[in-house]
Structures are given as C-alpha cells and as structure tokens.
TrEMBL record, chain A:
Keywords: Cell membrane, Membrane, Transmembrane, Transmembrane helix. GO terms for cellular component: plasma membrane. The lineage of its organism: Bacteria, Pseudomonadati, Pseudomonadota, Alphaproteobacteria, Rhodobacterales. It is found in: Cell membrane. This is Branched-chain amino acid ABC transporter permease. The chain crosses the membrane at residues 33-52, 59-75, 81-102, 107-124, 144-171, 202-225, 237-264, 276-294. GO terms for molecular function: branched-chain amino acid transmembrane transporter activity. PANTHER family: ABC TRANSPORTER ATP-BINDING PROTEIN, HIGH-AFFINITY BRANCHED-CHAIN AMINO ACID TRANSPORT SYSTEM PERMEASE.
TrEMBL record, chain B:
Signal peptide: none annotated. One of its GO terms (biological process) is L-amino acid transport. Belongs to the ABC transporter superfamily. Pfam families: ABC_tran (PF00005). GO terms for molecular function: ATP binding; ATP hydrolysis activity; branched-chain amino acid transmembrane transporter activity. Residues 4-233 form the ABC transporter domain. This is ATP-binding cassette domain-containing protein. It comes from Pseudooceanicola albus. Keywords: Amino-acid transport, ATP-binding, Nucleotide-binding, Transport. SMART domains: AAA (SM00382).
UniProtKB/TrEMBL annotation, chain C:
It is a multi-pass membrane protein. The keyword Transmembrane helix applies. This is Branched-chain amino acid ABC transporter permease. Belongs to the binding-protein-dependent transport system permease family. LivHM subfamily. CDD domains: TM_PBP1_LivH_like.
Length: 332, 233, 287
C-alpha cells in the first residue's frame, strides 16, 4: 500500500515538474498521451469490468468538447473553469439514453452505441449555430495565456491520476465486485441482489464523463473544434485497440497499451517516415495479432514474466476445488 | 476382439476431473449398460467417447484405431454415434432433415430413411413437421433415427427415458430388438436399473468417475453388490 | 408525383440495403458474430469493380459483378479460415467481434492510403442514364433492375437455405454446433462457406450501390451501420423481414433527403432509434 502511494506521489511529482523541463511540443505530446490513457482507461472500466463494449464512445469525446466550447464562448469564461461541464453534460445525456441503449445486448449494444454516436455527429455537423462541418473557434482561448500547454498538461495529468486512483478504489469496493459479477454472470449477480441495471448505468455514465473531460482537455489548446475530429470514430478505435493490446480488464493494460500506441505512432511516422494513417494500420494489425495470439493482452504476459502485481484488483481465489474423486463434474 | 476398448480414460472440465481411469470393453453385437447415481460420470463418459469433452486422456480404440486425440467429426466418421441426453434435435429442421443430418458421413449400412421409417412408422407421417414440435417420445425416436442413419459401428444412447412416460419408454426400448438384430453394438446409459438389466448383456456401475462394479452376465446380478456399488457403501 | 417517385426510389435503394443486412444476418445467425468489417468488404468490392471496369473498358458494369463476386467470396473464405476461425470458439462472444473491428479498421486505412479520400463512382455508362415512363412516373432502368436483382438474390438465398443439403447443414450448425459435429460436420468449413456467401451478397449490393452513389474508403461505416439496422429492424432469421426493413430504411432516407439535402443517413438512424423506443421489451427477448 505504501509502495503504491509512493508511486502515485512520484507520478504526481513528475507531472507537476514536467512543464518546467519540456518545451511546448513535448508538453502537447505528453498531454495527448495522458488524454489517451484517460479515454482508454474509461473504455476499459466499461468493457473490462462492466462487460459493455461500446463502439460509439467518440460521442462523449465530442460532446464533452462541444459543451465547454459552447459554454465558454457564451459566458466568456476561461474554458478550463468550465471543465466540469465536460463531465456533467455527457454523464447526463448518457443517463437519459441508457434505458434506450441497454435494450441492446452484447454485440448489438456495441453497434447500437455506434449508431447513436453517428446521430450526434450528423446533428452537430448540420447545426449552423455550431459552425456545421467547418466547426467553430474558441473565442475565449486568449484567456489561457502563453502557458496554455503547461496548464492543459497539468489538467490532463491530474485527470489521469484521478482516473487511476478512482478505478483502483472503485474496483476494490463492493460496487466494483458487484460490477464484475454482472460481467461474469448477469443472472447469478441479480440473484444475489446486485442491481445489475443501476450498476451498468452508473458505470456507463462515469465512463462517458471521463471521456468527455478528456475530449475537452484535448480540444481546448486547438482553440477550434470540428465535428470531424471531435466525433471521429478513430477515438473509439484507439480506445479499443489500446485496451485490447494492453490487456482488457486490467488496470495496467491501458497504461501499457498507451505507451505501445505512442511508440508505434512515433516509430511509424518518424522512424519509418510513413505519413498519414499508416501508424493506425500498424496499431490495428498489432491489435488483431494480439487477439489471435494473446487474447488477454500483453500486460498479463508481462506481469507473469516479471512477477509484478502492482495495481491488480484481482483477489485471491478463496479456495480451489481439489481434484479428489468426490468432486463431480457440473455437467451431469 | 472388442469393438471398442476404453482404457484408463480420464476426462476434465477445466480444473475439475470427472473421470478417473475408466476401463471398459464392448463386444461386437452386445448391449452394454452403464448405471450409476446422478453425477457419477455416465454422461461424461458418453461425451468423452464422441469427443464432446475435449480434455481427455487414456485410450479409446475403435476396432484398434486410437481416437483419444481426434475431433468429434472424425470420431463420427470412424463410426461412433450418440443419441445425446435431452435429444438435442436441430430446432430449425424438419423430422426428415434431422434424420438426413445423421447420414452426413456417407457411411454405408442397413440404415437409411426407409429403414428408420420402418422402425418408427409415425416419423414417416410427420416427416415434414418441425422436429422439436413433436411429443417427447417422438422426438426421442428422431434422435435414435438420426444416430442410426450414420450406420455407426457403435451406438451410444444417453438417458433415453429422461422425462418420458414409462409406456413410451417401453415402446422405444421395444425397437431395440430390431436394432440389435442388425448387429449393432450399443452402450446405453439408463437411470432405471431394472430396465438396464432387462435390455443389456453386460453392465457396469459408475460412481465418482470410477467403475465400482462390473456385471458379466445381467441374468445373474447380485442386487446387494449393485446397490453397494451404486451408493458407494 | 415527385413524392411517389421518391418513395419508389427508396424502395429500389431499400432492396440493396436489405441485401447488405442479409449478409450480416447470415453470419450472425450461424456464428453469433457481428462482422464489423462487412461494410469495408463492401467498399473493397466496389473498388475492385472500379478497377476492373477501368481495365476492361466497354464491358457492361453488370458483367463486372461476376468476377467481383467470385473475388469477394474468396476473400470471405480466406478471412474466415485464416483469422476468424481461430477465435470463434472464444468464451467471450465479444472477442470475435473485436477482431472484425480490428480488420475493418486496418482495411479502411489501407484503402485510404491506397485509393485516397476522393469520392469514386462505378461508371455504368448508358445504363445509369436510361429511364422509362410508367403511368406518368419517371423511373430509371438501373434502380428497377437493382430491385429485381435484390428480389432474385433474396429468393435464391431463401431457396439455398431452406431447400438444399448445404442449407440444411448451415441451419443445423447454427442450431447446435456441437451436435452437428457429431454428424461429421466440420464447423470451420461451414463458417468459411457462410462468410463467403455473406461477402458475395455484400459485393453485389456494394457494386450496385457504387453505380448510383459515389463512395470513399470511409463509406464502410455507413454501410455497416445500415446493414446492422436492417438486421435489428427485420428480426433475425426472417428473410423477408430483412427486405422490408431495408425498404423502410431506404424510403426513410430518400424522403428525408427531399426535406433536407444534407441529412445523409440521419433519418434512417432516427428510424432505427425510434424502433428501439417503440419496442420496450427489447428486440430479442431475454438474449
């Protein structure tokens, strides 16, 4: 426990001091990594622990961004002060829509949430008030001053640490256990009194809020928001692939996956000099290979190799059924 | 020589071991009964023989050919057919289509659609009906017919009487005389011990995944020994 | 009259949507997997069609369909045998879907890098401009032909599934794979066949769609979402339900188009969501 707190403090210290040492370009990249980790961790909480695979999570990224841009322009307030809206608005919309969305199960839920994201995307694209396809500027961008990259880096860093701590605590709590039991066996979980539906709604809303926050943080330093970027399906693709590569259902998976993603991006783009979306092809190919060869992701393999169990929320199994003859197979 | 030789067969469901070194032999043309309490491993043994329980060790030899590492479809082609517990008919297929599925292997032998309809005339009348909409007894006839259509060397029947009225069960077992007359070797799993004794030549009792008793002649069964083997006293 | 023509054109378009959904439903019915890459295979088929018709000018685009269908079927067979069959037995039903998601994304981006993002159409030459008048209605030959092809494909697949031995084996595998194996059925083969069939259907629809509207490598997203909506609206296992659902979506889209020209698939998506609201008990009961 002490080790974990020390690690966390060290991470906080690194994030706190980084802006003193890094230039704007490096800070921007760092912010992007932190944001990527946040959205992937939020997708992971939903899919890995909640058992809900959403292929439409880009909706919350865009909605979070638009919420802050609209409010900041309208109220003429520093956008960073309005960040709570980037969590609140997606969470509320998510809570309103879950009764509808949860009528779809499993793969149907996955694609259904994608349809929903498309609807948000088209609606924003068609809204003249929001600048349509071209998007709209952030008029209050000037309020952030020259140190904008340091500021959003700090916010992203704080958000990343908060997401890490929160997911750790939640998953160690009774709520987290209830959640995982729902994932593993919905009927059984309901029969022992877990409120399946409420838990799922809650975790979905939290996940939407986290992604919304990340979206706003990512988009603010651009001073401009465009539906094609804010609602790009690529966000969900990155969430999915990073988590699949890192290890679905583990807390460390998204960290490892994020590092691998950026390594691939820099490697393919700068190292191999391949521009455009080739790094995305490489990411997708790695994800496909991971699903074929290591369906649990790379973190569990690494953990077993290095004997690490740093953040795991796995609990020791209360007792293994032994192989004595008096135990019978369940099939009969 | 035995048609099928089972030696030191072990079967696992994940971490759970369900069979602990079962050895049995089935002679050509005989009917062999497996009895035992619920959870004794009878169905597991059946499912292991046809490859539905994937994790298995030991030996299963069909006419000398080793089948322990083969897939269900290869075992089917080699000539073992199962009438599964609960019948498990194909829900979107008619009676006749279910029967035709049994003949997918193209194994040759006396059993074809005509022969099955001769054995169970009611199936001919209902051949265009969806199989799962029929009564339990008629569904059981389809399941038996489907397995026979494969013209197997060994026919396995798992709990034919499950959920059926006694009079229907009797009708179904009456058909066995015809099946045996064609020289079929059979292993049947039966809850009803009296019936098992009546229809079989030899039998074995399973308990906790092990053979606890072998009866070499069902005409002379020691009921006390059987009871002890059955309940494990 | 304009409205009647719009509705009729919606029906013509809907027939194609029905076929997109039919291929998706076939795979889902047998393997319980939603093939997210369905849309991208459709787009790839269209690109192959464009390439072929440029390579052999003067040949009717309708004849181009044949080799493209063969290629699509081959791709489907390979896709299933090489990739999908390795994860199809996974305990987690979502693993195969995520794999198709990965393949979809890789395909889309490779096509983007190879063909660029400029919209392309499959030139149908005189056929695309030919039209006739019936009862005062002005109708294109191509759309009517399209609907005819759709109906033939629906009928053909229905016949294949319900009347032939291979259809019987496909249904049996879909009902109970383990028991089908006891009959000697090799599920991997059946899955590969079903995927080939699904993508062959998709290729026909993809080419016909490419003759009426332009497409880009990213069009796969629109295609898969429409196909998915057809499957949900039409209900599983219902051939004619899929055709009706496709028509409902096609008509909704084109009528919406009349109202506002930038709507794209918005109204089709909204119809789908409205349907979800209207069916409070879920669409498939407990599962």
């Amino acid at each position: 426990m002490i080790l974990r707190i020390l690690t966390l403090l060290l991470a906080a210290l690194v994030i706190g001091c980084a802006p003193l040492l890094l230039d704007d370009g490096q800070l921007s990249l760092g912010m992007e990594m932190l944001v990527t980790f946040v959205i992937c961790a939020m997708w992971n909480v939903l899919a890995g622990y909640g058992g809900l695979v959403s292929l439409g999570h880009q909706a919350w990224f865009g909605i979070g961004g638009y919420a802050v841009f609209i409010a900041s322009n309208a109220l003429n307030v520093n956008p960073l002060w309005l960040l709570p809206l980037a969590a609140l608005v997606p969470a509320l919309i998510a809570l309103v829509l879950t009764p509808l969305l949860f009528r779809l199960k499993d793969a149907y839920f996955a694609i259904g949430s994608w349809v929903l994201a498309e609807v948000f995307y088209i609606l924003v694209q068609r809204s003249d008030a929001l600048g349509g396809i071209t998007g709209m500027p952030l008029f209050t961008g000037g309020m952030l001053g020259a140190s904008i990259y340091a500021q959003v880096f700090w916010v992203a860093g704080g958000l990343a640490l908060a997401v890490l701590v929160l997911s750790y605590l939640v998953l160690r709590s009774g709520f987290g256990l209830g959640l995982m039991s729902v994932r593993d066996n919905e009927v059984a979980a309901a029969s022992i009194g877990v409120n399946v539906r409420r838990n799922r709604r809650l975790v979905y809303a939290v996940s939407a809020a986290g992604v919304g926050l990340a979206g706003a943080v990512y988009l603010i330093p651009n001073y401009f928001i465009q539906p094609g970027i804010a609602f790009s399906a690529d966000w969900t693709v990155i969430m999915t692939f990073v988590v699949v590569i890192g290890g679905i259902g583990t807390l460390e998976g998204p960290i490892l996956g994020t590092l691998i993603y950026f390594a691939i991006r820099q490697g393919v783009t700068d190292g191999l000099g391949l521009s455009g979306s080739w790094y995305l092809v490489a990411l997708g190919a790695l994800a496909v290979a991971t699903m074929l060869m290591a369906p649990k992701g790379l973190w569990p393999i690494l953990r077993d190799r290095l004997h690490l169990d740093w953040l795991s929320v796995r609990r020791p199994w209360p007792g293994r059924p032994d192989r004595a003859p008096h135990h019978q197979a369940p099939a009969e | 020589m035995d048609v099928i030789q089972i030696e030191r067969l072990e079967a696992f469901y994940g971490d759970m071991q369900a069979l602990f070194g079962v050895s049995l032999g089935l002679r050509a043309g005989e009917t062999f009964a497996l009895v035992g309490a619920n959870g004794a491993g009878k169905s597991t043994l059946m499912r292991a023989l046809v490859g539905l329980v994937r994790d298995r060790r030991g030996h299963i030899r069909l006419g000398g050919e080793e089948l322990i590492a083969t897939s269900p479809e290869q075992i089917a082609r080699a000539g073992i057919a199962l009438v599964p517990e609960g019948r498990q008919l194909f829900a979107s297929l008619t009676v006749e289509e279910n029967l035709q599925m049994g003949a997918m292997n193209r194994r040759r032998g006396p059993w074809d659609l005509e022969a099955i309809y001769g054995l169970f005339p009611v199936l001919r009348e209902r051949r265009r009906q969806m199989a799962v909409t029929m009564s339990g007894g008629q569904q059981q006839m389809v399941a038996i017919g489907r397995a026979l259509m494969a013209n197997p060397r060994v026919l396995l029947c798992d709990e034919l009487s499950l959920g059926l009225a006694p009079v229907i069960v009797s009708q179904i077992y009456d058909s066995f005389a015809r099946i045996r007359a064609e020289g079929m070797s059979m292993i049947i799993v039966e809850q009803d011990i009296e019936r098992a004794i009546a229809v079989s030549d030899r039998m074995a009792c399973l308990l906790h995944g092990q053979v606890t008793l072998r009866v070499e002649d069902t005409a002379r069964v020691d009921i006390d020994a059987l009871s002890a083997a059955y309940f494990g006293e | 009259m304009v409205w009647v023509e719009t509705v009729l054109n919606g029906i013509f378009l809907g027939g194609l949507y029905g076929i997109l959904g039919l291929g998706l439903a076939l795979v889902f019915g047998v393997m319980k997997v939603i093939n997210v890459a369905h849309g991208d295979f459709i787009v790839l088929s269209a690109f192959i069609g464009v390439f072929l018709s440029a390579a052999v000018p003067g040949v009717s685009p309708l004849l181009i369909i044949l080799p493209v269908v063969a290629i699509a079927a081959g791709l489907g067979w390979a896709f299933q045998s090489v990739l999908m069959n390795r994860v199809i037995d996974s305990d987690d039903m979502l693993v195969p879907m995520l794999l198709t998601f990965g393949v979809s994304f890789v395909m889309r981006n490779i096509m983007l890098e190879t063909f660029g993002a400029t919209p392309v159409t499959l030139e149908a030459g005189a056929l695309s401009r030919a039209s006739f008048q019936v009862a005062g209605l002005h109708l294109g030959v191509l759309p009517v032909l399209t609907l005819a092809i759709s109906v033939v494909l629906f009928g053909g697949l229905n016949w294949l599934i319900t009347r032939t031995e291979i259809g019987r084996v496909i249904r049996a595998t879909s009902d109970n794979t383990a028991i089908a194996r006891l009959m000697g059925v090799r599920p991997g083969r059946i899955y590969a066949l079903v995927m080939a069939l699904s993508l062959a259907l998709a290729a026909v629809a993809g080419l016909l769609l490419a003759m009426r509207t332009s497409f880009t490598p990213s069009s796969g997203i629109d295609r898969i979402l429409i196909a998915f909506e057809v499957v949900v609206l039409g209900g599983l296992g219902s051939f004619w339900g899929a055709l009706l659902a496709g028509i409902a979506l096609g008509v909704t889209q084109l009528v919406g188009f009349r109202f506002d020209a930038n709507s794209g698939l918005l109204y089709a998506h909204l119809l789908f969501l409205a349907f979800l609201i209207a069916r409070p008990n879920g669409l498939f009961g407990s599962k």
